[in-house]
């Protein structure tokens, strides 16, 4: 009986607490509904105030406000350029491109991953062109006028503009072989001696399948020849000496061919003796009695035979 009374007491307390909670919830709902009823009126007053403000005429901006707006605009442009400079690579449209691969069953217990053929665009770096600065202009050696770019300045580092370029005489190009033969220059004079002479590559006109032909600027080749030989007279003397030696060697080769030709023509009269030679020695002569040394001389060819007697 005591336990039943205690249980009924607990139940009554629980019911009273639940009733109080329900009452509190109803009060909160009533308060919220009252606020919602009052909200439409507040919205109407706010809309009326906005209409009054809009109906007022716009006041002109002061000079200080305009300056501030311009500064903010310039700052925004600088920030935008900085963001673009931090990522110069062009991004393809549509986001990132993921590689898609398909799996092929080889039938041997493993799979083959084959990438699909896709045309991949190479990322290009976007560089803004540098401004042209006046002091960076080159000065032409002939007309003394400034210029930005020319064929001779790019290929041979010669400060001459394209208008003053004379491809026939003054700025003529010669081959490497002609430079070595005409000005007696060696490979080390062209390639090793500082500064090395610059050249341009052209296809060989005799046969395009041969190696490319190196063309040098004749003006620079003449200067290099003067550095090597000193004066034009020394160069001319060296050329004459080489020409004389060349003529001597040519004459020797000619004489040798004439001699061989004469032998071929006179082969019926002159025959080479191919038989073996038998020495015919004369009487022996005593050279040294103490050592018993003797000598014999061939009467035909003059061969000497020295020997000792025991």
TrEMBL record:
<dbReference type="GO" id="GO:0006284">
    <property type="term" value="P:base-excision repair"/>
</dbReference>
<keyword id="KW-0479">Metal-binding</keyword>
<dbReference type="GO" id="GO:0070914">
    <property type="term" value="P:UV-damage excision repair"/>
</dbReference>
<keyword id="KW-0862">Zinc</keyword>
<dbReference type="GO" id="GO:0000715">
    <property type="term" value="P:nucleotide-excision repair, DNA damage recognition"/>
</dbReference>
<keyword id="KW-0238">DNA-binding</keyword>
<dbReference type="GO" id="GO:0003684">
    <property type="term" value="F:damaged DNA binding"/>
</dbReference>
<protein>
    <recommendedName>
        <fullName>XPA C-terminal domain-containing protein</fullName>
    </recommendedName>
</protein>
<keyword id="KW-0863">Zinc-finger</keyword>
<dbReference type="InterPro" id="IPR000465">
    <property type="entry name" value="XPA/RAD14"/>
</dbReference>
<keyword id="KW-0234">DNA repair</keyword>
<dbReference type="Pfam" id="PF05181">
    <property type="entry name" value="XPA_C"/>
</dbReference>
<dbReference type="InterPro" id="IPR037129">
    <property type="entry name" value="XPA_sf"/>
</dbReference>
<dbReference type="InterPro" id="IPR022652">
    <property type="entry name" value="Znf_XPA_CS"/>
</dbReference>
<keyword id="KW-0227">DNA damage</keyword>
<dbReference type="Pfam" id="PF01286">
    <property type="entry name" value="XPA_N"/>
</dbReference>
<keyword id="KW-0539">Nucleus</keyword>
<dbReference type="GO" id="GO:1901255">
    <property type="term" value="P:nucleotide-excision repair involved in interstrand cross-link repair"/>
</dbReference>
<feature type="compositionally biased region" description="Basic and acidic residues">
    <location>
        <begin position="43"/>
        <end position="59"/>
    </location>
</feature>
<dbReference type="GO" id="GO:0008270">
    <property type="term" value="F:zinc ion binding"/>
</dbReference>
<comment type="similarity">
    <text>Belongs to the XPA family.</text>
</comment>
<feature type="domain" description="XPA C-terminal">
    <location>
        <begin position="170"/>
        <end position="221"/>
    </location>
</feature>
<feature type="region of interest" description="Disordered">
    <location>
        <begin position="28"/>
        <end position="62"/>
    </location>
</feature>
<dbReference type="InterPro" id="IPR022656">
    <property type="entry name" value="XPA_C"/>
</dbReference>
<dbReference type="InterPro" id="IPR009061">
    <property type="entry name" value="DNA-bd_dom_put_sf"/>
</dbReference>
<dbReference type="GO" id="GO:0000110">
    <property type="term" value="C:nucleotide-excision repair factor 1 complex"/>
</dbReference>
